[in-house]
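ok so I'm stuck.
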Amino acid sequence: MQFPESWLREFCNPPLTTAELADLLTMSGLEVEGVRPLAPPCKGVVVAEVLSVSAHPNADKLRVCWVNVGASAPLQIVCGASNVRAGIKVPCAQVGAELAPPANKPNAGPLQIRLGELRGIESHGMLCSASELHLLDEANGLLILDEDAVVGADVRQHLNLDDMIFSLKLTPNLGHALSVFGLAREVAALTGSPLKALSIPQLGVDLEEILPVNIEAPNLCGRFSGRIIRGLNSKAPTPRWMVDRLLRCGQRSISALVDISNYVMFETGQPSHIFDLDKIQGGLTVRWARPGENLKLLNGQTVALDPAIGVIADQQAVESMAGIMGGGATAVSDDTCNVYIESAFWWPDAIAGRSRRFNFSTDAAHRFERGVDPEQTLVCVEQLTYWVQQVCGGQAGPISDQCPRLPVRPAVRLRVARASKVIGMPLSQAQCSGVMQRLGFSFTESLGELHVCPPSWRFDLQIEEDLIEEVIRVIGYSQLPSDPPRAPVVARVRSESTHSLHGLRHQLAHRDYSETINFSFVEKRWESELAGNDEPVRLLNPIAAPLSVMRSSLMGGLVAVLRHNLSRKLSRVRVFEVGRVFHLDVTAPDGPFSVAGLRQTMQVGGLAYGALAPTQWGHKERMVDFYDVKGDVEALLQPRVAKFKAALHPALHPGRSASIELDGEVVGFVGELHPRWRQAYDLPAAPVLFEISAAALMMRKLPVCEAIMRQQPVWRDLALMASVKLTHDSLIHVVRQAHPFVRSAVLFDIYHQVQDCVPLQQSMAVRIELNDDDIVLTENLIGEAMDQIVSAVAQLGCTLRG
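replied:
not stuck anymore, here's the structure
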């Protein structure tokens, strides 16, 4: 929000400098983003009156003007502005004056005005436009001043160009501060300075005509006020002072009626709308839109409406989008003679998010979705009527006011002891009640408690903590004591049985993976295709239409990162991500770090694509495969040993993927991307992905000391013929359990016997290490052990290879 300091001080003028006022607002939660003068420094620019204008003898577009600047004799100045004419008063930069440099050359020095000659005619100065004084970025002609401007007066003082412009960044709960009067009310409460009340003109009624209004949707409109004004002159110019104030709030002048509506909104915070009465067919109806209805808005955009959008309609069509923007059909113009002024209270929930659906935002919607004072609608109509009659004339009818459903604000309890504990400093009940009085809140008191009834303009006061915030905000955060911590600061030592997430990141980085961070909200297509999740957690208000659900797997984001890199001609990609995934779970409890019905787990995912290693002379280049990534996973899990079992996963190749098991529990998956999704996501080759529970990776066994073997180990190789369905894990498990002497078993060779392209059997060669701590292995003992191993593997259908 932007506003001039001078307008604020008309309502509340505390004994503070501009810098102190800005600091006060910021420290009270009303963050001041910037403070700047209305115009940059200039000197030598005075009010001048144009005495005469004649054509330039040597240029069609130039005029020779004689102007009165007060102290000296009239000056001859050559001017090219189209709106120059005799009798007007304009800013004049005399010879020797200095203006600020152009906006496109901010580092240039001041622009000095010298005696010049244009097409053979001397020019003793320059008549200025608003852009040359840096009041506007662009201007079509000279800046015409009021008729009562004193000739020869300094323009900087006449226009108050030293007025400071405040820019505020307000949080959504501060809707009551989106007006000059609302800010003045805050400053009065913070400083104790008197607050000048809003002027409410008492106007007579000239007509008896009332426009019938029917409110069909009380959950859309809580109050609707309006009146008819006939016989006005819509071509009347907006007063110069009103145009200046709007410009200082960042709003250009459009027409008298529109300017008056904007002026009242900036002053009171209450948006309004002015209809052309002659274009309304019958009465007005406030309702929700119906399917198939369309509306052409004031900005020229035609939007398709639906039952979630509130509208104001007449007997024939929709005329306005409630609380957001009026329609073009009933917009006022220079031909308007009769108008209907409307000021309403729209429920915040009925307005919030609607304008963003159509990719635009309005000042009215910005205020209504945060909450506007429902008690201000009559004041707004009276002020609009007053200014319309002052500027455009006309006769006003009586105000029609309907209140189908106003907000009910229950009292909020404030415990003084609780406030003192939360704020962290001693407070008295007198201090708390004093704050409520300064804020203008009504309340009742009992021993140690206040029961505060929130005023109509404060929609953010709902719980005790809101009132506690008001107490310390008004007392001042600077009053908080700077006490040192009383408890000793003791570092939390991590158990050796757990690994840190930061350590996991380092491990993956050491294995040539780069970390990526993706949004937790993803496309619904990813959840369905890559996670097999048809019921993801849906977002009520997504930041973008495609990102409409919460992820239950990291794989979708990793594939998107791969596509992003491939589109930039990278042929080798190795990335990982550590992040949360989200599942609907009715058994999930509510707690300080959890949400009921929502299971949130931390996962670690990775993707490898392209060559196994960067191009080098040491070995031949080859593509990364399942076993390379499986090795990376095993390195992450060390010293724990996982089992990899063939398993199906929606995102992975059915024949080249496996589940990862630790202690009989599946903790993740690893595998090659499914050919269907490789083709769907337009990938030249299939990447290899893995996703593992971070909790499983963070657990590790404590080191255990083992004695060095006292006996020499013995190795034997066993070559077996087995079925092609026999798995590696099954064979090694049986061998290791077959005899106590077996210390390790490693499959070092495999060969498939194929006939007509169909594998019949496989030859599997296993190297077995035998040893014992107490017994020296003799040939007889070794032979007995090997016989038992052969007998054990025979139960798997294995035979010795001949």
